[in-house]
Amino acid sequence: MSSNSRAGRPRDQRTHAAILDAAEHLILETGYATTSVTAIAARAGVGKDAIYRRWSGKPELVYEALFTRVDLGPVPDEGTVEADVTALVEALIAEFSAPAAAIALPGLLADFAADPKLRAVLRDSFLAPVKSRMGEIFERARVRGEIGDDIAIDLVLDTIAGAIFFHLGILGEPVTADLATRLGAIITTGITR
Amino acid sequence: MSSNSRAGRPRDQRTHAAILDAAEHLILETGYATTSVTAIAARAGVGKDAIYRRWSGKPELVYEALFTRVDLGPVPDEGTVEADVTALVEALIAEFSAPAAAIALPGLLADFAADPKLRAVLRDSFLAPVKSRMGEIFERARVRGEIGDDIAIDLVLDTIAGAIFFHLGILGEPVTADLATRLGAIITTGITR
Protein backbone atom coordinates (compact mmCIF):
# COMPACT_ATOMS: atom_id res chain seq x y z
CA MET A 1 0.00 0.00 0.00
CA SER A 2 1.51 3.35 -0.97
CA SER A 3 1.68 6.22 1.51
CA ASN A 4 -0.36 8.13 -1.05
CA SER A 5 -3.41 5.93 -0.69
CA ARG A 6 -3.04 5.93 3.10
CA ALA A 7 -2.98 9.72 3.20
CA GLY A 8 -5.94 9.83 0.82
CA ARG A 9 -8.30 7.78 2.92
CA PRO A 10 -9.21 10.39 5.57
CA ARG A 11 -9.91 13.02 2.88
CA ASP A 12 -12.04 10.48 1.04
CA GLN A 13 -14.01 9.81 4.24
CA ARG A 14 -14.50 13.54 4.77
CA THR A 15 -15.84 13.90 1.21
CA HIS A 16 -18.14 10.90 1.76
CA ALA A 17 -19.54 12.40 4.98
CA ALA A 18 -19.89 15.86 3.40
CA ILE A 19 -22.04 14.39 0.60
CA LEU A 20 -24.28 12.57 3.10
CA ASP A 21 -24.63 15.74 5.20
CA ALA A 22 -25.46 17.80 2.09
CA ALA A 23 -28.23 15.34 1.14
CA GLU A 24 -29.72 15.47 4.64
CA HIS A 25 -29.70 19.27 4.77
CA LEU A 26 -31.26 19.65 1.31
CA ILE A 27 -34.06 17.21 2.18
CA LEU A 28 -34.81 19.18 5.35
CA GLU A 29 -34.85 22.43 3.38
CA THR A 30 -36.65 21.49 0.14
CA GLY A 31 -38.09 17.96 0.46
CA TYR A 32 -37.10 14.66 -1.13
CA ALA A 33 -38.53 14.97 -4.66
CA THR A 34 -36.79 18.28 -5.43
CA THR A 35 -33.41 17.23 -3.98
CA SER A 36 -31.29 16.22 -7.00
CA VAL A 37 -27.84 14.67 -7.30
CA THR A 38 -26.75 17.93 -8.98
CA ALA A 39 -27.92 19.96 -5.98
CA ILE A 40 -26.31 17.55 -3.49
CA ALA A 41 -22.99 17.74 -5.38
CA ALA A 42 -23.09 21.55 -5.46
CA ARG A 43 -23.93 21.75 -1.74
CA ALA A 44 -21.10 19.34 -0.85
CA GLY A 45 -18.64 21.15 -3.14
CA VAL A 46 -17.88 18.05 -5.24
CA GLY A 47 -18.50 16.99 -8.83
CA LYS A 48 -21.38 14.67 -9.71
CA ASP A 49 -18.82 11.99 -10.63
CA ALA A 50 -17.74 11.89 -6.97
CA ILE A 51 -21.32 10.87 -6.13
CA TYR A 52 -21.78 8.33 -8.93
CA ARG A 53 -18.46 6.68 -7.96
CA ARG A 54 -20.00 5.90 -4.55
CA TRP A 55 -23.74 5.39 -5.15
CA SER A 56 -26.01 4.23 -7.99
CA GLY A 57 -28.05 7.41 -7.56
CA LYS A 58 -30.13 9.52 -5.20
CA PRO A 59 -32.14 6.73 -3.51
CA GLU A 60 -29.07 4.75 -2.33
CA LEU A 61 -27.30 7.93 -1.24
CA VAL A 62 -30.31 9.18 0.75
CA TYR A 63 -30.84 5.74 2.31
CA GLU A 64 -27.24 5.76 3.57
CA ALA A 65 -27.49 9.37 4.78
CA LEU A 66 -30.70 8.93 6.77
CA PHE A 67 -30.93 5.28 7.80
CA THR A 68 -27.45 3.93 8.44
CA ARG A 69 -25.89 6.58 10.66
CA VAL A 70 -28.11 6.02 13.72
CA ASP A 71 -26.80 3.86 16.60
CA LEU A 72 -29.55 1.33 17.38
CA GLY A 73 -28.10 0.40 20.79
CA PRO A 74 -28.33 -3.07 22.38
CA VAL A 75 -31.10 -5.50 21.40
CA PRO A 76 -34.04 -5.18 23.85
CA ASP A 77 -34.10 -7.98 26.47
CA GLU A 78 -36.77 -7.14 29.02
CA GLY A 79 -38.03 -10.63 29.81
CA THR A 80 -41.21 -10.81 27.71
CA VAL A 81 -41.75 -10.79 23.95
CA GLU A 82 -44.36 -8.02 24.32
CA ALA A 83 -41.92 -5.69 26.11
CA ASP A 84 -39.14 -6.49 23.61
CA VAL A 85 -41.37 -5.97 20.54
CA THR A 86 -42.63 -2.71 22.06
CA ALA A 87 -39.03 -1.53 22.56
CA LEU A 88 -38.22 -2.49 18.95
CA VAL A 89 -41.29 -0.58 17.74
CA GLU A 90 -40.21 2.42 19.84
CA ALA A 91 -36.77 2.43 18.17
CA LEU A 92 -38.36 2.18 14.69
CA ILE A 93 -40.75 5.02 15.51
CA ALA A 94 -37.79 7.19 16.56
CA GLU A 95 -35.93 6.31 13.32
CA PHE A 96 -38.94 6.89 11.00
CA SER A 97 -40.02 10.12 12.68
CA ALA A 98 -36.61 11.85 12.72
CA PRO A 99 -37.18 15.09 10.74
CA ALA A 100 -35.28 14.29 7.51
CA ALA A 101 -36.35 10.61 7.56
CA ALA A 102 -40.04 11.50 7.93
CA ILE A 103 -39.80 13.89 4.96
CA ALA A 104 -37.89 11.49 2.71
CA LEU A 105 -39.40 8.09 3.52
CA PRO A 106 -42.50 7.96 1.25
CA GLY A 107 -40.67 9.19 -1.87
CA LEU A 108 -37.53 7.22 -1.06
CA LEU A 109 -39.41 3.92 -0.66
CA ALA A 110 -41.42 4.66 -3.83
CA ASP A 111 -38.11 5.13 -5.71
CA PHE A 112 -36.76 1.85 -4.30
CA ALA A 113 -40.02 0.03 -5.17
CA ALA A 114 -40.09 1.39 -8.75
CA ASP A 115 -36.58 0.14 -9.64
CA PRO A 116 -36.25 -3.67 -9.82
CA LYS A 117 -32.54 -3.57 -8.84
CA LEU A 118 -33.18 -1.36 -5.80
CA ARG A 119 -36.34 -3.24 -4.83
CA ALA A 120 -34.30 -6.45 -4.72
CA VAL A 121 -32.00 -5.06 -2.01
CA LEU A 122 -34.73 -3.54 0.21
CA ARG A 123 -34.86 -6.57 2.52
CA ASP A 124 -31.06 -6.71 2.75
CA SER A 125 -30.51 -2.99 3.31
CA PHE A 126 -33.52 -1.24 4.88
CA LEU A 127 -34.80 -4.24 6.82
CA ALA A 128 -31.70 -6.27 7.66
CA PRO A 129 -30.76 -4.51 10.93
CA VAL A 130 -34.26 -4.71 12.43
CA LYS A 131 -34.75 -8.28 11.15
CA SER A 132 -31.57 -9.37 12.90
CA ARG A 133 -32.72 -7.74 16.17
CA MET A 134 -36.17 -9.28 15.82
CA GLY A 135 -34.56 -12.69 15.26
CA GLU A 136 -32.79 -12.47 18.63
CA ILE A 137 -35.99 -11.34 20.39
CA PHE A 138 -38.03 -14.17 18.85
CA GLU A 139 -35.40 -16.80 19.63
CA ARG A 140 -35.44 -15.85 23.32
CA ALA A 141 -39.27 -15.82 23.28
CA ARG A 142 -39.31 -19.28 21.65
CA VAL A 143 -36.97 -20.66 24.34
CA ARG A 144 -39.24 -19.14 27.04
CA GLY A 145 -42.22 -20.82 25.34
CA GLU A 146 -44.01 -17.53 24.58
CA ILE A 147 -44.15 -18.12 20.82
CA GLY A 148 -44.09 -21.20 18.59
CA ASP A 149 -41.30 -22.08 16.20
CA ASP A 150 -43.49 -21.41 13.14
CA ILE A 151 -43.44 -17.59 13.31
CA ALA A 152 -43.22 -16.03 9.82
CA ILE A 153 -40.57 -13.49 10.84
CA ASP A 154 -40.57 -11.63 7.50
CA LEU A 155 -44.33 -11.13 7.63
CA VAL A 156 -44.26 -9.95 11.25
CA LEU A 157 -41.43 -7.58 10.32
CA ASP A 158 -43.40 -6.24 7.33
CA THR A 159 -46.45 -5.79 9.55
CA ILE A 160 -44.53 -3.76 12.13
CA ALA A 161 -42.55 -1.70 9.61
CA GLY A 162 -45.61 -1.24 7.38
CA ALA A 163 -47.80 -0.13 10.27
CA ILE A 164 -45.28 2.47 11.45
CA PHE A 165 -44.44 3.67 7.91
CA PHE A 166 -48.12 3.98 6.93
CA HIS A 167 -49.23 5.59 10.21
CA LEU A 168 -46.40 8.14 10.46
CA GLY A 169 -44.86 8.41 6.98
CA ILE A 170 -47.91 8.24 4.71
CA LEU A 171 -50.72 9.52 6.94
CA GLY A 172 -48.52 11.87 8.98
CA GLU A 173 -50.16 10.95 12.30
CA PRO A 174 -48.44 12.39 15.39
CA VAL A 175 -46.23 10.16 17.57
CA THR A 176 -48.40 9.71 20.67
CA ALA A 177 -46.91 8.49 23.96
CA ASP A 178 -48.73 5.14 23.76
CA LEU A 179 -48.14 4.39 20.05
CA ALA A 180 -45.36 1.81 20.61
CA THR A 181 -47.29 0.12 23.44
CA ARG A 182 -50.48 -0.14 21.36
CA LEU A 183 -48.65 -1.46 18.28
CA GLY A 184 -46.59 -3.86 20.40
CA ALA A 185 -49.84 -5.20 21.91
CA ILE A 186 -51.53 -5.66 18.50
CA ILE A 187 -48.54 -7.66 17.25
CA THR A 188 -47.99 -9.83 20.31
CA THR A 189 -51.50 -10.50 21.65
CA GLY A 190 -53.78 -9.23 18.88
CA ILE A 191 -57.08 -7.44 19.31
CA THR A 192 -59.18 -10.28 20.75
CA ARG A 193 -59.71 -10.67 24.51
CA MET B 1 -82.92 22.60 -16.27
CA SER B 2 -82.43 23.22 -20.02
CA SER B 3 -82.56 20.32 -22.48
CA ASN B 4 -79.03 21.34 -23.38
CA SER B 5 -77.57 20.42 -19.96
CA ARG B 6 -79.59 17.19 -19.91
CA ALA B 7 -78.20 16.12 -23.27
CA GLY B 8 -74.68 17.14 -22.14
CA ARG B 9 -74.49 14.92 -19.10
CA PRO B 10 -73.95 11.49 -20.75
CA ARG B 11 -71.17 12.94 -22.95
CA ASP B 12 -69.58 14.44 -19.85
CA GLN B 13 -69.68 11.04 -18.14
CA ARG B 14 -68.12 9.41 -21.18
CA THR B 15 -65.30 11.98 -21.15
CA HIS B 16 -64.82 11.41 -17.41
CA ALA B 17 -64.57 7.63 -17.88
CA ALA B 18 -62.27 8.01 -20.91
CA ILE B 19 -59.83 10.09 -18.83
CA LEU B 20 -59.81 7.50 -16.02
CA ASP B 21 -59.28 4.67 -18.55
CA ALA B 22 -56.44 6.60 -20.23
CA ALA B 23 -54.69 7.04 -16.86
CA GLU B 24 -55.02 3.33 -16.04
CA HIS B 25 -53.65 2.25 -19.43
CA LEU B 26 -50.69 4.65 -19.32
CA ILE B 27 -49.73 3.46 -15.83
CA LEU B 28 -49.80 -0.16 -17.01
CA GLU B 29 -47.65 0.74 -20.02
CA THR B 30 -45.12 3.21 -18.62
CA GLY B 31 -45.41 3.29 -14.81
CA TYR B 32 -46.73 5.94 -12.41
CA ALA B 33 -43.87 8.46 -12.31
CA THR B 34 -43.69 8.93 -16.10
CA THR B 35 -47.49 9.18 -16.56
CA SER B 36 -48.23 12.93 -16.84
CA VAL B 37 -51.48 14.89 -17.03
CA THR B 38 -50.38 15.94 -20.54
CA ALA B 39 -50.02 12.31 -21.62
CA ILE B 40 -53.34 11.31 -20.03
CA ALA B 41 -55.12 14.19 -21.81
CA ALA B 42 -53.58 13.24 -25.17
CA ARG B 43 -54.49 9.56 -24.72
CA ALA B 44 -58.10 10.44 -23.77
CA GLY B 45 -58.37 12.94 -26.64
CA VAL B 46 -59.20 15.90 -24.39
CA GLY B 47 -57.50 19.15 -23.42
CA LYS B 48 -55.61 19.43 -20.10
CA ASP B 49 -58.29 21.92 -18.96
CA ALA B 50 -60.85 19.08 -19.09
CA ILE B 51 -58.70 17.27 -16.52
CA TYR B 52 -58.03 20.24 -14.23
CA ARG B 53 -61.77 21.06 -14.20
CA ARG B 54 -62.35 17.66 -12.58
CA TRP B 55 -59.24 16.92 -10.47
CA SER B 56 -56.56 18.91 -8.62
CA GLY B 57 -53.90 16.93 -10.50
CA LYS B 58 -52.48 13.50 -11.28
CA PRO B 59 -52.66 11.97 -7.77
CA GLU B 60 -56.41 12.59 -7.28
CA LEU B 61 -57.15 11.45 -10.85
CA VAL B 62 -55.14 8.22 -10.47
CA TYR B 63 -56.68 7.53 -7.06
CA GLU B 64 -60.17 7.74 -8.59
CA ALA B 65 -59.16 5.64 -11.62
CA LEU B 66 -57.63 2.77 -9.64
CA PHE B 67 -59.24 2.74 -6.21
CA THR B 68 -62.88 3.82 -6.52
CA ARG B 69 -64.12 1.73 -9.42
CA VAL B 70 -63.92 -1.67 -7.71
CA ASP B 71 -67.08 -3.17 -6.18
CA LEU B 72 -66.15 -4.24 -2.64
CA GLY B 73 -69.21 -6.52 -2.22
CA PRO B 74 -71.01 -7.11 1.09
CA VAL B 75 -69.23 -6.63 4.45
CA PRO B 76 -67.83 -10.00 5.65
CA ASP B 77 -70.01 -11.61 8.36
CA GLU B 78 -68.68 -15.11 8.98
CA GLY B 79 -69.31 -15.39 12.71
CA THR B 80 -65.85 -14.65 14.16
CA VAL B 81 -63.70 -11.52 14.11
CA GLU B 82 -60.73 -13.55 12.85
CA ALA B 83 -62.65 -14.82 9.79
CA ASP B 84 -64.07 -11.35 9.09
CA VAL B 85 -60.69 -9.60 9.42
CA THR B 86 -59.14 -12.27 7.18
CA ALA B 87 -61.84 -11.67 4.54
CA LEU B 88 -61.23 -7.92 4.80
CA VAL B 89 -57.48 -8.48 4.38
CA GLU B 90 -58.18 -10.71 1.37
CA ALA B 91 -60.22 -7.94 -0.31
CA LEU B 92 -57.46 -5.37 0.38
CA ILE B 93 -54.83 -7.75 -1.01
CA ALA B 94 -56.90 -8.13 -4.20
CA GLU B 95 -57.27 -4.34 -4.48
CA PHE B 96 -53.57 -3.54 -3.80
CA SER B 97 -52.25 -6.30 -6.08
CA ALA B 98 -54.39 -5.48 -9.14
CA PRO B 99 -51.83 -4.76 -11.92
CA ALA B 100 -52.21 -0.97 -12.29
CA ALA B 101 -52.75 -0.47 -8.54
CA ALA B 102 -49.59 -2.40 -7.65
CA ILE B 103 -47.55 -0.29 -10.09
CA ALA B 104 -49.00 3.05 -8.98
CA LEU B 105 -49.41 2.65 -5.22
CA PRO B 106 -45.92 3.54 -3.86
CA GLY B 107 -45.55 6.69 -6.01
CA LEU B 108 -49.20 7.65 -5.60
CA LEU B 109 -49.08 7.44 -1.79
CA ALA B 110 -45.75 9.33 -1.77
CA ASP B 111 -47.41 12.13 -3.81
CA PHE B 112 -50.36 12.22 -1.40
CA ALA B 113 -48.01 12.25 1.61
CA ALA B 114 -45.83 15.05 0.19
CA ASP B 115 -48.74 17.49 -0.34
CA PRO B 116 -50.34 18.75 2.90
CA LYS B 117 -53.76 19.24 1.21
CA LEU B 118 -53.79 15.72 -0.25
CA ARG B 119 -52.38 14.15 2.90
CA ALA B 120 -55.27 15.66 4.86
CA VAL B 121 -57.84 13.74 2.77
CA LEU B 122 -56.05 10.35 2.81
CA ARG B 123 -58.12 9.03 5.73
CA ASP B 124 -61.37 10.30 4.17
CA SER B 125 -60.66 9.03 0.65
CA PHE B 126 -58.26 6.06 0.56
CA LEU B 127 -59.22 4.63 3.95
CA ALA B 128 -62.88 5.59 4.42
CA PRO B 129 -64.46 2.55 2.67
CA VAL B 130 -62.35 -0.03 4.52
CA LYS B 131 -62.71 1.84 7.84
CA SER B 132 -66.49 1.76 7.50
CA ARG B 133 -66.40 -2.00 6.79
CA MET B 134 -64.03 -2.59 9.69
CA GLY B 135 -66.35 -0.60 11.96
CA GLU B 136 -69.23 -3.00 11.21
CA ILE B 137 -67.01 -6.05 11.77
CA PHE B 138 -65.70 -4.71 15.10
CA GLU B 139 -69.18 -3.73 16.33
CA ARG B 140 -70.44 -7.30 15.75
CA ALA B 141 -67.29 -8.69 17.44
CA ARG B 142 -67.82 -6.36 20.42
CA VAL B 143 -71.43 -7.53 20.80
CA ARG B 144 -70.24 -11.17 20.65
CA GLY B 145 -67.69 -10.33 23.36
CA GLU B 146 -64.69 -11.18 21.17
CA ILE B 147 -63.10 -7.75 21.48
CA GLY B 148 -63.32 -4.96 24.06
CA ASP B 149 -64.81 -1.54 23.41
CA ASP B 150 -61.42 0.19 23.59
CA ILE B 151 -60.08 -0.94 20.18
CA ALA B 152 -58.14 1.86 18.44
CA ILE B 153 -59.81 1.29 15.06
CA ASP B 154 -57.60 3.79 13.16
CA LEU B 155 -54.42 2.13 14.43
CA VAL B 156 -55.65 -1.38 13.59
CA LEU B 157 -56.66 -0.11 10.14
CA ASP B 158 -53.22 1.48 9.63
CA THR B 159 -51.56 -1.76 10.77
CA ILE B 160 -53.51 -3.88 8.27
CA ALA B 161 -53.24 -1.41 5.37
CA GLY B 162 -49.58 -0.70 6.17
CA ALA B 163 -48.68 -4.39 6.37
CA ILE B 164 -50.29 -5.17 3.00
CA PHE B 165 -48.94 -2.01 1.31
CA PHE B 166 -45.41 -2.57 2.62
CA HIS B 167 -45.35 -6.34 1.92
CA LEU B 168 -46.81 -6.17 -1.61
CA GLY B 169 -46.41 -2.57 -2.79
CA ILE B 170 -42.98 -1.65 -1.43
CA LEU B 171 -41.21 -5.02 -1.15
CA GLY B 172 -43.04 -6.63 -4.09
CA GLU B 173 -43.53 -9.96 -2.28
CA PRO B 174 -45.78 -12.44 -4.11
CA VAL B 175 -49.39 -12.96 -2.98
CA THR B 176 -49.19 -16.41 -1.37
CA ALA B 177 -52.33 -18.48 -0.73
CA ASP B 178 -52.03 -18.10 3.05
CA LEU B 179 -51.12 -14.39 3.20
CA ALA B 180 -54.58 -13.17 4.27
CA THR B 181 -54.91 -15.98 6.85
CA ARG B 182 -51.49 -15.24 8.36
CA LEU B 183 -52.07 -11.46 8.49
CA GLY B 184 -55.61 -11.98 9.85
CA ALA B 185 -54.14 -14.18 12.61
CA ILE B 186 -51.42 -11.66 13.54
CA ILE B 187 -54.02 -8.90 13.90
CA THR B 188 -56.65 -10.87 15.79
CA THR B 189 -54.68 -13.20 18.06
CA GLY B 190 -51.10 -11.91 17.78
CA ILE B 191 -47.94 -14.00 17.69
CA THR B 192 -47.97 -15.34 21.27
CA ARG B 193 -49.40 -18.77 22.12
- Count the beta strands of chain A: 0
Biggest interface between protein chains, with counts per chain?
A-B, 51 and 51 residues
Total count of helical runs of at least 4 residues of chain A: 10
Helix-strand pattern of chain A: HHHHHHHHHH
Q: Estimate the global geometry of chain A from the Cα principal axes.
A: elongated
CATH fold-level assignment of the largest domain in chain A: Tetracycline Repressor, domain 2
- Count of folded domains of chain A: 2
Taking pLDDT < 50 over at least 5 consecutive residues as the criterion, the unreliable ranges of chain A are 1-5
Class per helix and strand makeup of chain A: mainly alpha
Largest sheet of chain A: none
Q: Portion of residues in helices of chain A?
A: over 70%
- Mean pLDDT across the residues of chain A is 94
CA-based gyration radius of chain A: 19 Å
DNA-binding region (chains A, B): 36-55
InterPro entries (chains A, B): Homeodomain-like_sf, HTH-type_TetR-like_transc_reg, HTH_TetR, Tet_transcr_reg_TetR-rel_C_sf, TetR_C
Keywords (chains A, B): DNA-binding, Transcription, Transcription regulation
Domain HTH tetR-type (chains A, B): 13-73
